[in-house]
Amino acid sequence: MGGTTSPLKRHSSPYSLTTKLFPYSLYALFLLLPIALFRFCFHPFSSPTNPTHPSSSSIGKVVEFCSYNNGRWVHDKMGPLYNGSSCGTIKEAQNCISHGRPDIGYLYWRWKPRRCKLPRFEPYTFLALLSNKHIAFVGDSMARNQLESLLCMLATVSEPNLVYTSGEDNRFRTWHFASHNIVVSVYWSPFLVRGVEKSDYGPNYNELYVDSVDERWTADLDHIDMIVLSIGHWFLHPAVYYQSGSVLGCHHCKALNHTEIGFYGVTRKAVRMALETIIERKGGNDGNGIDVFLTTFSPSHFEGEWDKAGACSRTKPYRRVERRLEGMDAEMRAIEVEEMEAARLNARRFNGRVRLEILDVTKLSLLRPDGHPGPYMYAFPFANGVHDRVQNDCVHWCLPGPIDTWNQIMLQVIKRWNVDSRRVVKLMP
Ligand SMILES: *[C@@H]1O[C@H](CO)[C@@H](O)[C@H](O)[C@H]1NC(C)=O
Ligand SMILES: *[C@@H]1O[C@H](CO)[C@@H](O)[C@H](O)[C@H]1NC(C)=O
């Protein structure tokens, strides 16, 4: 740690996200809980995205098709594929063990879906299925968190070479796996649509242009074969929204003379805009096809104050019955699930050139209050005793940790797609 400012600077983004997020999460929760409860009564744990595969039995041995979002966490003595020393690409603030987190029980759980088994991540299978492809993670720091989990698991068998980096805090990066000629990249785009993030120099709120995609990632769409979208928490911040050149409304913006419209409708518009753009550009005759994942909202677990010890200090998962999906978590997930369903219908006309799947991780993540860095976002936070104030990250996930499961599920879907496409080929006369 060189200069006096660098450690602070390095940690500035999770810090500011957490600090500024917390009040708005609560605000959103209490303001919008009635709506969520209303929804819940009519669609209790509905899961519109999991149609039964018509011929799952014939391929049952190869790839089970099941609904991965319902299940429970069970003990697993195998533990993760990697650790904080063996993987060199973990963001420091999420390298919990190397930052002195004392309990390691949280590493020994696996997700058991209700009706099937979720296999451990198979790095060789992933690399084989995605040979010569470009996989892009697009979104906020949760997209990056998931990307870093994937890199660590792949790195156990093949070395990623960092070939490009740009932006504050390495927000745009690309790796190349020479063994299988695979490109993996991450694009910072916390709204998916064009946005100006609040800053110390500009306005103290975000500005979003809901009818205009963020060209920072769409400009590269031609070269992307698989895309993983992951957004959510940045929509909770104060913001002004623009559509068709005028102000649509704003959120948490008392000082401004605009109509408060909350953030759910805008989240929906942004997701829709992103999916429609991908489908249009990749599905048509000029497009070269694409596989699309949308990772659903990842719940945070603040139980106390964000800057006090114990903000998220649990060391075990919740049992399934202990927590139900509700409030903002449920609402954000529902928006993503619904928009993905609409996108799948929209993409049908392109005969499978655009494959879309929701990565429905909200519930399984909700059950893991033990998986966050908490105070270990900083190295050895209690080295000089427990102080009054300690910053906590109860939003992102330790690596290794529960977020590895997201990529396990993603691989199962990719395997199923591969089997499906082979079957199509075989059926042809
Ligand atoms: C991390 O993993 C490496 C490689 O598997 C192993 O050699 C090392 O002992 C592990 N370190 C810890 C602290 O578990
Ligand atoms: C706020 O908007 C209202 C309605 O458009 C307008 O009448 C009023 O003058 C505005 N106030 C300020 C301070 O701009």
UniProtKB/TrEMBL annotation:
Membrane association type: Single-pass membrane protein
Subcellular location: Membrane
Record domain Trichome birefringence-like C-terminal: where: 118-412
Main location: membrane
Trichome birefringence-like N-terminal domain boundaries: 66-117
Coiled coil: 318-348
Entry keyword Zinc-finger: no
Top-level division of the source organism's lineage: Eukaryota
UniProt xrefs under InterPro entries: TBL, TBL_C, TBL_N
TM regions (residue ranges): 21-40
Keywords, comma-separated and alphabetical: Coiled coil, Membrane, Signal-anchor, Transmembrane, Transmembrane helix
Pfam families linked: PC-Esterase, PMR5N
Family per similarity comment: Belongs to the PC-esterase family. TBL subfamily.
Protein name as it appears in the record: Trichome birefringence-like N-terminal domain-containing protein
Species for this entry: Hibiscus sabdariffa
